[in-house]
Amino acid sequence: MDIISIYAITAGGVFVALFLISILPYLYQLAKSLELYISRYLIFPFFLRRHRFVGPWTRGAVLIHLLYTGVNLFCLCFGVSSPTEFADRSGTLAVVNMVASYTAGHVSFYSDILSISRHTCLQIHRGTAWMVSGLLVLHVVLISTIQSSFSLDRTSNLFALIGAGCVVGLTLFTLPYIRRHIFEVFLRTHQRHIPSGNRLSKICIITTFVLLSIALLLQLGFLIYRNRIFSLRGWPRARVSCNRPRIEGENDSNVIIQVRVALTRPVRIKAGQYINLWIPSVTWWSWTQMHPFMVTSWSHSCQETLDILIQPRRGFSRELLKQARSAQEGSASLRAFIIGPHGRSENVDRYESVMFVASGFGITAAIPYLKKLVYSYNTSASRTRRVHLVWEVKTLDIAIAVQGTLNSLLEDDVLKKRYILTISIHVKSGQIIGDVMKFGNHDRAVVYNGHANYDQILHAEMSGELIKRLPNAKEEKGESLVMVAASSRVRDQIRLVLQDYVHQKAKMVILEYQP
Ligand SMILES: Cc1cc2nc3c(=O)[nH]c(=O)nc-3n(C[C@H](O)[C@H](O)[C@H](O)COP(=O)(O)OP(=O)(O)OC[C@H]3O[C@@H](n4cnc5c(N)ncnc54)[C@H](O)[C@@H]3O)c2cc1C
């Protein structure tokens, strides 16, 4: 590209940017007025329900994927004059698509930069990965049929084969860590494979490397800054304990690992945000792992310690549990580092009613929001007049472990003898005697036997009739928010029920952590 073209494109870009900025308020207004229709006809309804291997796909997701595929097909086919050009285009398009996915490194960092949720970011990543794989397979098949002989003595062929091997490896290895590294190998080998005439691919690969390097350096910088790595005052430490000792013959899935990280640099964490936790000394392999966890402690100012609740699984978390149990004083103290906070925080204060639907450990995503809502109500900083937590658990173990936190929330929530918080815990049938039981000393926390009836609960919440209103005052019902951190079964159910209430100012938010 000559210097005049670069100037023309830059100047044009500046004018387009200025124009877009000037029409931004109108675009916002337009988006606001279309929001209801988009939610009702595209975001909520399923195109394909959840099945064992596919789904669920919403209409909106299908439309976006079709659009994305259509644009790529157009770029692939428009004005192609020979099979060789078609093959070259498929390779170049694959590289162009890769830029979108691999410039920011870690998914948490990527979603923060784009201000989208981790969930959306993973969907974008998955979509582009499928597109890249499809285009590459096409590229390899076409090249091997067009070329009369595919000699591995040619460096470009050899690197093409390594690149294709990486794609096969990508399909075989599902671990995100390996997946990312396989793609990096792929990028490097493809750089060697790209013919010298293909400038666009070269620009894309160089751009990816430059942006990826910047992103990795920034992440390293954040890690050093956040944990004061070079400070003489020591590094952050995590105190790890669990709620009960090992019981022979019982599995540990209902045990809770409690972690309190004492930071060296206080940090402000908004409700609903998570951190990536790095505890290098848990096992000999754990120095390579970072795990995301919701922060359950919340404060309107900076926090010096962070509380995390962890469910023991098979890997890092199980080893952490072993460390907690083997500690002499009942808790282990380990060197720990954090990166973050990451993730979006919803502005819950503007809604008249907020409902949380959680299952099992999904409660970790709801707790900080509950703390924030009670604080905002007590300081008259919110419009919220009703908060309902509906929590499904298999056994009461986890509920008992967080009982202290829930009780203190209920105790804090008594401004002028009025309150906003109600808690309904639904426990698997047979775990309690009778159908209903009080939870703790508060009438506002109740345990029910069996699954929650979301149809009924949402109908009552969305009608607004559970909010006390002034008699004879004609008050319009405010906006309602339903936040979900639950199993896929519950999520799908909520989505189905809630689509009937979109016109009643109801919004659904999928929280960053889904158990
Ligand atoms: C944003 C977010 C917040 C989370 N908050 C909590 C929380 O507050 N409490 C809690 O108990 N769990 C939380 N999790 C889940 C938690 O990160 C995983 O359970 C944990 O990483 C499991 O580690 P493991 O080696 O023991 O897992 P394994 O037994 O090896 O795997 C169990 C499951 O955890 C997933 N997993 C493993 N490693 C990671 C990783 N590095 N990143 C993401 N998922 C992984 C695997 O896909 C698998 O489904 C959260 C996950 C996310 C994405």
Automatic annotation (TrEMBL):
<keyword id="KW-1133">Transmembrane helix</keyword>
<feature type="transmembrane region" description="Helical">
    <location>
        <begin position="60"/>
        <end position="81"/>
    </location>
</feature>
<dbReference type="InterPro" id="IPR013121">
    <property type="entry name" value="Fe_red_NAD-bd_6"/>
</dbReference>
<dbReference type="GO" id="GO:0005886">
    <property type="term" value="C:plasma membrane"/>
</dbReference>
<dbReference type="Pfam" id="PF08030">
    <property type="entry name" value="NAD_binding_6"/>
</dbReference>
<keyword id="KW-0406">Ion transport</keyword>
<feature type="transmembrane region" description="Helical">
    <location>
        <begin position="158"/>
        <end position="179"/>
    </location>
</feature>
<feature type="domain" description="FAD-binding FR-type">
    <location>
        <begin position="233"/>
        <end position="348"/>
    </location>
</feature>
<dbReference type="GO" id="GO:0000293">
    <property type="term" value="F:ferric-chelate reductase activity"/>
</dbReference>
<keyword id="KW-0472">Membrane</keyword>
<protein>
    <recommendedName>
        <fullName>FAD-binding FR-type domain-containing protein</fullName>
    </recommendedName>
</protein>
<keyword id="KW-0813">Transport</keyword>
<dbReference type="Pfam" id="PF08022">
    <property type="entry name" value="FAD_binding_8"/>
</dbReference>
<dbReference type="GO" id="GO:0015677">
    <property type="term" value="P:copper ion import"/>
</dbReference>
<dbReference type="InterPro" id="IPR013130">
    <property type="entry name" value="Fe3_Rdtase_TM_dom"/>
</dbReference>
<dbReference type="InterPro" id="IPR039261">
    <property type="entry name" value="FNR_nucleotide-bd"/>
</dbReference>
<feature type="transmembrane region" description="Helical">
    <location>
        <begin position="6"/>
        <end position="28"/>
    </location>
</feature>
<dbReference type="GO" id="GO:0006826">
    <property type="term" value="P:iron ion transport"/>
</dbReference>
<dbReference type="InterPro" id="IPR051410">
    <property type="entry name" value="Ferric/Cupric_Reductase"/>
</dbReference>
<keyword id="KW-0249">Electron transport</keyword>
<comment type="similarity">
    <text>Belongs to the ferric reductase (FRE) family.</text>
</comment>
<keyword id="KW-0560">Oxidoreductase</keyword>
<feature type="transmembrane region" description="Helical">
    <location>
        <begin position="93"/>
        <end position="116"/>
    </location>
</feature>
<feature type="transmembrane region" description="Helical">
    <location>
        <begin position="128"/>
        <end position="146"/>
    </location>
</feature>
<dbReference type="InterPro" id="IPR013112">
    <property type="entry name" value="FAD-bd_8"/>
</dbReference>
<dbReference type="InterPro" id="IPR017927">
    <property type="entry name" value="FAD-bd_FR_type"/>
</dbReference>
<keyword id="KW-0812">Transmembrane</keyword>
<dbReference type="GO" id="GO:0006879">
    <property type="term" value="P:intracellular iron ion homeostasis"/>
</dbReference>
<dbReference type="Pfam" id="PF01794">
    <property type="entry name" value="Ferric_reduct"/>
</dbReference>
<feature type="transmembrane region" description="Helical">
    <location>
        <begin position="200"/>
        <end position="225"/>
    </location>
</feature>
